């Protein structure tokens, strides 16, 4: 067994890419979303074959609002998570923090990540799809196969409900070299349409304790299922309940 943090990036990247080749449509790859080293160990010990950090969950753990985490702190958090486990870790790095593709790839690899999410909106506004595709192509070229690039498609998140707009963007990103596309917020009932129109793996946002199961999402078109900050928020809610029960009442302590 590998010691946490010691396997080569090449080996983990290959393992991660292979995990996306699923034996059947209703058996999607399911990735837990840890927000720190402790939660990463819990998820790995539970049997998840790989992990995918959520930017919102990591931000909350560091005391920031989603989208406000300084790049240095985000990469440091990803590095702590990757060092803590011996399974592949993909990192949500939002829109790339304005870093040049080569520097972005270098920092991800230095942190021990084998994959990344890259969003196609910033400040709540969709980016020009062709310009974003060009950036993705540069990231993929700089990575040379060492990173699994999950290209997020933010149309549904930004109020563009026509599935064809998501399919058009996804086609550009796949052509640019993205390994997977992530139409975040897509309604479950449009997943079959997205599946028929998109080449390659599709990442779907699931809910940890409600909604369709990962298997049901796979049957509708999901190649992999992630939970965003869902696990972190559930953990925080559980801690809040426990803390409320334990907190002293009145002035007596």
Automatic annotation (TrEMBL):
Gene Ontology molecular functions: lyase activity
Keyword Signal on this protein?
A: no
List, alphabetically, the SUPFAM superfamilies matched.
Phosphoenolpyruvate/pyruvate domain
Keyword Lyase tagged = yes
Q: Which UniProt keywords apply?
A: Lyase
Xref: InterPro entries = ICL/PEPM, Pyrv/PenolPyrv_kinase-like_dom, Pyrv_kinase-like_dom_sf
PANTHER family named among the record's database cross-references = CARBOXYPHOSPHONOENOLPYRUVATE PHOSPHONOMUTASE-LIKE PROTEIN (AFU_ORTHOLOGUE AFUA_5G07230), PHOSPHOENOLPYRUVATE CARBOXYLASE
Name this protein carries in UniProt: Isocitrate lyase/phosphoenolpyruvate mutase family protein
């Amino acid at each position: 067994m590998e010691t946490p943090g010691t396997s080569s990036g090449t080996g983990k990247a290959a393992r991660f890419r292979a995990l996306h080749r699923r034996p059947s449509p209703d058996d999607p790859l399911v990735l837990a979303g840890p927000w720190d080293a402790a939660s990463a160990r819990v998820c790995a010990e539970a049997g998840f074959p790989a992990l995918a950090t959520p930017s919102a969950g990591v931000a909350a753990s560091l005391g920031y609002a989603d989208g406000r985490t300084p790049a240095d702190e985000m990469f440091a958090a990803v590095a702590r998570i990757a060092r803590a486990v011996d399974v592949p870790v993909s990192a949500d790095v939002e829109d790339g923090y304005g870093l040049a593709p080569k520097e972005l790839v270098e920092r991800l690899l230095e942190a021990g990540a084998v994959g990344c999410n890259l969003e196609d909106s910033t400040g709540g506004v969709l980016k020009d799809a062709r310009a974003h595709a060009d950036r993705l192509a540069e990231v993929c070229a700089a990575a040379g196969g060492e990173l699994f690039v999950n290209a997020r498609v933010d149309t549904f998140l930004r109020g563009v409900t026509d599935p064809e707009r998501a399919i058009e963007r996804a086609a550009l990103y796949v052509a640019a070299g993205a390994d997977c596309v992530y139409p975040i917020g897509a309604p479950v009932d449009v997943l079959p349409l997205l599946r028929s129109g998109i080449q390659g793996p599709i990442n779907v946002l699931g809910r940890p304790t409600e909604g369709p199961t990962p298997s049901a999402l796979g049957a509708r078109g999901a190649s992999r299922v992630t939970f965003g900050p869902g696990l972190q928020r559930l953990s925080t809610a559980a801690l809040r309940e426990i803390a409320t029960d334990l907190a002293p009442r009145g002035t007596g302590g």
